[in-house]
């Protein structure tokens, strides 16, 4: 077991094509001893976005701060502080904070990927 402050984890720019003003910190993963799940902290600054994309793994998300449009939903949908979002495997999704005035911060939990270091 261990406890770590999130600021001790490396801050990385999200390198997905089309992502803007978005960072991630890998809080828990294979390198830190996890065998099943990965926990990440994302922050999308005002004016930023993560474009539509999809993955084989499902996502469980908890919104810590802010409000943003959830792209890929069948109707216009927003997620805000204290909301939980579930994204099934292979479903297109993205996040749009281009109209936001504060950072959109969320925890994202996914299954541990075999190719993760």
Quick take:
By secondary structure, the protein is mainly beta.
Explain how this protein is built.
This protein is mostly beta strands and 117 residues long. It has a domain at 27-98 and 106-111: Jelly Rolls. It contains no helices and nine strands. A hairpin with a 6-residue loop joins strand 1 (12-13) and strand 2. It is globular and about 40 Å long. It starts with 11 loop residues before the first strand and ends in a 6-residue tail after the last strand.
Question: How would the blueprint of this fold be written?
Answer:
Elements (H helix, E strand, L loop, with lengths): L11 E2 L6 E9 L8 E17 L5 E7 L1 E5 L5 E4 L3 E4 L5 E5 L6 E8 L6
Antiparallel strand pairs: 1-2, 2-3, 3-8, 3-9, 4-7, 4-9, 5-6, 5-8
Keywords:
single chain, 117 residues, mainly beta, Jelly Rolls, nine-stranded antiparallel sheet, 0% helix, globular
Poorly predicted runs: none
What structural class results from the helix and strand content? mainly beta
Give the N-to-C terminal Cα separation.
20 Å
Please state the second-level CATH architecture of one domain: Sandwich
- Profile the largest sheet: 9 strands, antiparallel
Quote the CATH topology of one domain: Jelly Rolls
- The CATH superfamily label of one domain reads Jelly Rolls
Estimate the mean pLDDT confidence. 95
Query: Tally of extended strands?
Result: 9
* Helix-strand sequence: EEEEEEEEE
Tally the helices.
0
Shape: globular
Q: Could you tell me the strand content as a percent range?
A: over 45%
CATH C-level of one domain: Mainly Beta
Please state the CA-atom Rg, rounded to the nearest Å: 14 Å
The share of residues in helices is under 10%
